[in-house]
Amino acid sequence: MAVNNITPEVSWRSFDFRSEPLTELRSMYELTYGAKVDESVWEWKYVKNPDVGGIRMIVAVADKRIVGATTRMPADILVNNEVRKAYFNVDSMVHPDFRRLGIMQSLYGYTASMMPIQYSKGTNPGMYGLLKKIGYRDVLPNTFMVKYLSIPKLLLNKIRVYSARTGAPPEVRDDCGEKGFIRAERFGPEFDEFRSRVSPGFGGVPVKDSERMNWRYNAIPHRQYHVFYRKKGGRIVSVVVMRIKEVSGSIVDILWDRAEGDEPQSTIRFCAGFLKSSGALKITCWATLDDLRACLRRNGFIDNNETPRFSVFAPNGMDVFANGGKIHFVEGDGDSEYL
Ligand SMILES: CC(C)(COP(=O)(O)OP(=O)(O)OC[C@H]1O[C@@H](n2cnc3c(N)ncnc32)[C@H](O)[C@@H]1OP(=O)(O)O)[C@@H](O)C(=O)NCCC(=O)NCCS
Q1: Is residue 261 part of a domain?
Q2: What is the residue range of 210's domain?
Q3: Which end of the chain is more exposed for a tag (fewer CB within 10 A), N or C?
Q4: Strands 77-79, 82-84: parallel, antiparallel or unpaired by DSSP?
Q5: Cβ(92) – ligand 1 distance below 6 Å
Q6: How high is the pLDDT of residue 164?
Q7: How far apart are CA 338 and CA 85, in angstroms?
Q8: In whole angstroms, what is the distance from residue 27 CA to residue 273 CA?
C-alpha cells in the first residue's frame, strides 16, 4: 500500500470499492452532501460501469478512519487518431472536520503523478479554486448554448400559470421519415461501425463505444433519454441523445459524419422539432466544438455565458487538451460527472 504523509496524522492510499467495506465512505458522503447515497445510482455508476476495472478511488486516512476521498473515472479520448488515456474526476469530498488542511490538494497531487490527463467539471467554488491553484486550466469555449422556443410561456411557467404537457413524447415514425430519423432502443454493432467511421473526422472526441453508450444512456436508473439515429442508404450518419425535464429540453450527446454537408444542422433542427412537440419551451446544449457551436448559433441558439467550469490537467499537452474548440465534448443534461 502506497502511503504519503500530508501531516503527521493524515496519509492516503488507494481504496478497493469492490472488496472493502463502504460504511465510512457512505457516512462521509451523507455528512458532505446531506443525503444518503442512492444505492441504485452507486451500483450503476461504479459496479456496472463498463470500465469498472479502470476506476481509481483514493482515500485519505487519519487515526485509522477515512477522512477524504476522490475517484478517477476512465474517459479515454481519441486525439489526432490516437487513443489517449484520460480520467474524469468525481466524488471528491473531505470530512467537514478535516477541511482546509491540504488533504484534497494532496490527493489530487498523487493522482496527477499517476494519470497524465484529468478532466473536472461542475465543481463548487472551493473545489474550482483548488483546481486553479494546482494548475488546472479551463477548457474553452465551454458555455451553455440555449434556444428559447417560447419566452412568454417560459415566463408563465415560472409563475406557475403554464405547466408542461404530461404524457409520453411524440412517437417518431420508424419508417425513416423525410430526413431518416428513427428512434434507437439500444446501441449495438451498427453504432460501433458508425463511431469508428466518423470519429477520425474530429480533431478529438471521447471514446464511447456501444457498451459505454448503453450503460450511460439506457442502464442509468435515475434518468430517461431519447436516442435517435439518422440513416442514409442504410448507414447511420448521425446519432443524438436528448432529455426532457418539464419544460427544458437538452441535447445531451450528438455525433455526426462530418462528410455529410447538411450535418449537424439537420440533426439540430430535428431535435428542436422533437423537443418542442414534446413540450419543451427551451433547449440547452453544452458543447465545445467550434463547428457545432457555430451551427447552433445559426439555428437560433444563444450563448448564455454560464459555464460548468470544465477544466483539465495535462502537463504534457495542456494546449491540446484544453482546446475545446477542436475536441468534441458535449453533455448537457445537468450531470456534471460524465463526458
Ligand atoms: C472542496 C473540498 C473537497 C476541498 O477539500 P480540502 O481538503 O478542504 O481542500 P484543501 O485543504 O486541499 O484546499 C486546497 C486549496 O483549495 C482551495 N479551497 C479549498 N476549499 C476552499 C473553499 N471552501 N473556498 C475557497 N477555496 C477553497 C484553497 O485555495 C485551498 O488552499 P488554502 O487552504 O491554502 O487557501 C472540501 O471542501 C469538500 O469536501 N467540500 C464538499 C464536497 C464538495 O464540494 N466536493 C467537490 C464537488 S465536485
Answers
A1: yes
A2: 144-308
A3: N
A4: antiparallel
A5: yes
A6: 64
A7: 15
A8: 45
Q: Is residue 80 classed exposed, middle or buried when 0-12, 13-18 and 19+ CB atoms within 10 A define those classes?
A: exposed
What pLDDT is attached to residue 5? 47
Which one of 6, 127, 132, 337 would you pick to mutate in the ligand 1 pocket, going by the greatest count of ligand atoms within 8 A of its CB? Answer: 127
CATH number at residue 293: 3.40.630.30
How many Å apart are CA 232 and CA 177, to the nearest integer? 11
Which amino acid, one-letter code, is at 283?
Answer: I
Q: Is it the case that residue 193 has pLDDT exceeding 80?
A: yes
- The amino acid occupying position 249 is G
| CB of residue 71 inside a 6 A radius of ligand 1 | no
SS3 for 45? helix
Kindly report the pTM of this predicted structure.
Answer: 0.91
Position of cell 481519441?
A: 78
Q: Is residue 268 part of a domain?
A: yes
The pLDDT score that the predictor gives to residue 332 is 66
203 CB neighbour count, 10 Å cutoff = 17
Q: CA neighbours within 13 Å on the CB side: how many for 46?
A: 19
For ligand 1, say whether the CB of 7 is within 6 Å of any of its atoms.
no
Q: Are residues 108 and 150 in the same domain?
A: no
Number of domains in the chain: 2
